[in-house]
Amino acid sequence: MSLLPPSPLRAPLALLPQEVSSYALAMALACTLLAASIVPFLFRKNIRNANGILIPPGPLLRYAFLRKYPERALSGWAKKFGPLFSIWMGNQLFVVISDPKIAHDLLVKQGAIFSSRKQYFMKNQTILAGRAITASPYDDKWRHHRRLAMQLLTPKAIQTYADVLDYEAAILVRSFYDESNKGTLPLDPANYAGRYALNNMLTISLGTRTTRSTTPLIERALQLAMEFMDLTGPFSNPIDFITPLQWIPTRTRTRGRQLHRAIIEVYGTMYQDVKARMDAGEIVPECLVRTLIETTEIEKLDWTDTCMFAAVFTLGGVHSTSGVIQWFLALIPSHPEIQAHAHEELDRVVGQDRLPSAEDEPHLPYIRAIIKEVQRVHAPFWLATPHFSTQDYEYNGMFIPKHTAVVLDCFTIHHNEERYPDSYTFNPDRYLGDELSCAESAKLNNAELRDHFAFGAGRRICPGMVVAERELFLAISRILWAFNVKSIPSEPISLEEYEGMSGRTPLPFRVMFEPRHENVDEVLYNIHEMKL
Ligand code: HEM
């Protein structure tokens, strides 16, 4: 028995029985209150509409973010809960679509309801300040901006700069040849593919291009596009889903603010450069910024709008297109039989005396099939930019409330074994007989017949599809025409991991660009230089 006087710390143990029970009651009450206030933040809320119809089923917990490869979690839930399920990210309800018909029914047929954008704290509010086409809610301003952008992206408009796309693709192939010392040194293709896509976007946006010795401003534009892909994952930032995090100076918030300022600075400067050239009487090629300058009075865009406009093609169209080229180069060395088939088609249709051109495309079904298959197995966005609903809607006995974020899950659709048997295998044969371009395929009334969903769906579908397809065809057909792309035995290429939170590109890798025939040298050195 202790001889020490009772310690004040031990006092509660000495409570009388009735005091014990009121203390326990108070503790129990406090715990219940605490639990009651925490539970709504931890567990899903099953909302019903006035008819008692529930939101789509989904996981029990709420999430603050999804770990690095979110498509894997979504795919698991799609298997468990079905092709239309819901998930709570903080206080934001998401529904996830992983079926072509549902995508068509909601995003296309009900486009009037499902075409807005969630105003993410990072992407929409902080980085883009609610301005760029991709961030705008579904309203008149978006219609206006998208119409302006489309003036440069229709098949007819593309003809006005088709020679630039052609030239850039030739330069891309020549850079691989030169920089690999005629195929004797291994090369990491990332920067070359990035510069190719960047030059095409700069041409369309600003009537300019980079040379090998790039200006710091343009190098910066490439970095900004990369940073944008890293900071704008639809599920990756807790700050998007936990409001108090938005009030404190986290590293993510700082990066977002810095990126916003950098976009305004870099693209504002580029805009001013084009304006100075025009003011000096120089002829600037047809481009987005020239249109903006010529129509300043009519369009009435403020400075932030103008800068975001100048940036939007580069932000959307660089890592996406260059990503597909990189995935192609990562995949193709492990498929020599597919390369051989492509080489045979190219030799038969194009011959070895010239590079393939855009006019050859209809006659090269196997090359087209390879490009579609790369986009299926390695879409640069597994999760297309989420749409946002602006009205309550009932679909197949499920309730989708107003202000739900709607995600098209390409990963799960592209790995549906019924649609694409042996779906993890890279097999271009599955697209033989598909004579439609991706843009044409996206317009099919029967969505089950659509080739793939890499460009999204509905009224917000990628407006750059036609340009992207042209860029991909020119680059990939010419790489195959010129080279046998080989891997380096001691440097395995990972096809599972990737970089980027929204747009995804492979981890750095190197390949050998072995020239296929004697004419490669002569044809590549006969490319006529082009000056913008
Ligand atoms: C292989 C290349 C590309 C892929 C896979 C791709 C994919 C996508 C996807 C998935 C979306 C979201 C669609 C949706 O909300 O349903 C999108 C939107 C967009 N893309 Fe692309 N894209 C590519 C190239 C381009 C190019 C070259 C440009 C510019 C010329 C571009 C400009 C845009 C813009 C401005 C939007 C926003 C549209 C809106 O919100 O109304 N993209 N893209």
TrEMBL record:
<keyword id="KW-0560">Oxidoreductase</keyword>
<keyword id="KW-1133">Transmembrane helix</keyword>
<dbReference type="InterPro" id="IPR017972">
    <property type="entry name" value="Cyt_P450_CS"/>
</dbReference>
<dbReference type="Pfam" id="PF00067">
    <property type="entry name" value="p450"/>
</dbReference>
<keyword id="KW-0812">Transmembrane</keyword>
<keyword id="KW-0349">Heme</keyword>
<dbReference type="InterPro" id="IPR050364">
    <property type="entry name" value="Cytochrome_P450_fung"/>
</dbReference>
<dbReference type="GO" id="GO:0016705">
    <property type="term" value="F:oxidoreductase activity, acting on paired donors, with incorporation or reduction of molecular oxygen"/>
</dbReference>
<dbReference type="InterPro" id="IPR001128">
    <property type="entry name" value="Cyt_P450"/>
</dbReference>
<feature type="binding site" description="axial binding residue">
    <location>
        <position position="462"/>
    </location>
    <ligand>
        <name>heme</name>
    </ligand>
</feature>
<comment type="pathway">
    <text>Secondary metabolite biosynthesis.</text>
</comment>
<keyword id="KW-0472">Membrane</keyword>
<comment type="similarity">
    <text>Belongs to the cytochrome P450 family.</text>
</comment>
<dbReference type="InterPro" id="IPR036396">
    <property type="entry name" value="Cyt_P450_sf"/>
</dbReference>
<keyword id="KW-0408">Iron</keyword>
<keyword id="KW-0503">Monooxygenase</keyword>
<protein>
    <submittedName>
        <fullName>Cytochrome P450</fullName>
    </submittedName>
</protein>
<feature type="transmembrane region" description="Helical">
    <location>
        <begin position="20"/>
        <end position="43"/>
    </location>
</feature>
<dbReference type="InterPro" id="IPR002401">
    <property type="entry name" value="Cyt_P450_E_grp-I"/>
</dbReference>
<dbReference type="GO" id="GO:0005506">
    <property type="term" value="F:iron ion binding"/>
</dbReference>
<dbReference type="GO" id="GO:0004497">
    <property type="term" value="F:monooxygenase activity"/>
</dbReference>
<keyword id="KW-0479">Metal-binding</keyword>
<dbReference type="GO" id="GO:0020037">
    <property type="term" value="F:heme binding"/>
</dbReference>
